[in-house]
């Protein structure tokens, strides 16, 4: 379903997602990463997927982009294993940190290389063309679906709807948590006075979606307390989105999924101190 959604967003997103997934997974397999524990469940491929989608979005379809996605997916695979070694003693997952690291390096260093940056796509926020904080019903319902689609850099509401369908197929709780978390992110941005067009594009929802999914049912056991904890995490991720975007403003404000990674690491690291929360499984 996710692959269908990516191709619905544009053939290049589906194709480069596949390229990143295959290269990252093959890299892990060649280097001897455990097949049943890591490779078969897809844990070695998803960062490569995101690298492929992000780089084709920022750099367009060119042979140089193909080469960079291959190199970036290999780097993401190595970073995944390195971070696993560093984080496992603290019972923390790598999340999408390898993707964030690789893509941040690419967009920060890209301008120094003319053959890389020549095809760089201008990606200003939607609010650059439609400023204002007045929320409309269209921004509201499309922003809720786009908050799910933006996990893979997709800002078409129907693509987000396909992603949501895939999440509900995975489990009704998963789909519901994603939908509610996206709504939380959108409402947080609206209450704080974010630009309405950016909210409608889902830019304040996707990090909340990932954080909500991580903290409710995936890494923390389902309970009323963990539901509230996940909701607070989703609000925090939305609030951090603008801060991270401003830090990266000099390179186009590419927030990526840094807010999700940072918030989820902090919230999971704190769990052993909280007697009313327990890890899943």
From TrEMBL:
Q: InterPro entries in the record, alphabetically?
A: Ammonium/urea_transptr, Urea_transporter
Q: Which residues form a coiled coil?
A: none
Query: How is it placed in the membrane, per its record?
Result: Multi-pass membrane protein
Q: Where in the cell is it found?
A: Cell membrane
Principal localisation: membrane
- Which UniProt key words apply to this protein? Cell membrane, Membrane, Transmembrane, Transmembrane helix
**What sections of the protein cross the membrane?**
39-59, 66-86, 92-113, 158-191, 203-222, 229-250, 256-275
- Keyword Glycosyltransferase among UniProt keywords: no
Pfam families documented for this protein: UT (PF03253)
One of the record's GO cellular component terms: plasma membrane
Molecular function via GO: urea transmembrane transporter activity
Matching PANTHER family: UREA TRANSPORTER
Q: Which family does it belong to?
A: Belongs to the urea transporter family.
What is the name attached to this protein's record?
Urea transporter
């Amino acid at each position: 379903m996710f692959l269908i959604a990516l191709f619905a967003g544009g053939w290049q997103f589906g194709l480069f997602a596949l390229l990143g997934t295959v290269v990252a997974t093959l890299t892990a397999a060649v280097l001897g990463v455990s097949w049943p524990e890591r490779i078969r469940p897809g844990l070695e491929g998803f960062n490569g997927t995101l690298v492929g989608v992000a780089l084709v979005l920022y750099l367009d379809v060119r042979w140089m982009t193909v080469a960079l996605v291959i190199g970036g997916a290999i780097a993401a695979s190595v970073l995944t294993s390195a971070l696993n070694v560093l984080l496992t003693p603290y019972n923390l997952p790598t999340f999408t940190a390898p993707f964030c690291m690789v893509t941040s390096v690419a967009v920060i260093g890209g301008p120094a290389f003319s053959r890389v940056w020549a095809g760089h796509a201008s990606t200003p926020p939607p609010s650059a063309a439609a400023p204002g904080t007045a929320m409309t019903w269209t921004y509201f319902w499309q922003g809720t679906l786009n908050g799910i689609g933006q996990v893979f850099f997709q800002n078409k509401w129907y693509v987000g709807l396909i992603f949501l369908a895939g999440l509900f197929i995975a489990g009704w709780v998963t789909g519901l948590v994603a939908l509610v978390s996206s709504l939380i992110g959108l409402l947080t941005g609206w209450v704080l006075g974010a630009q309405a067009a950016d909210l409608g594009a889902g830019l304040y929802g996707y990090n909340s979606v990932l954080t909500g999914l991580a903290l409710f049912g995936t890494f923390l056991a389902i309970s009323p307390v963990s539901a509230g904890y996940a909701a607070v995490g989703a609000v925090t991720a939305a609030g951090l989105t603008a801060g991270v975007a401003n830090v990266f403003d000099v390179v186009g404000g590419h927030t990526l999924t840094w807010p999700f990674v940072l918030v989820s690491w902090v919230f999971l690291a704190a769990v052993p101190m909280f007697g009313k929360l327990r890890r899943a499984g």
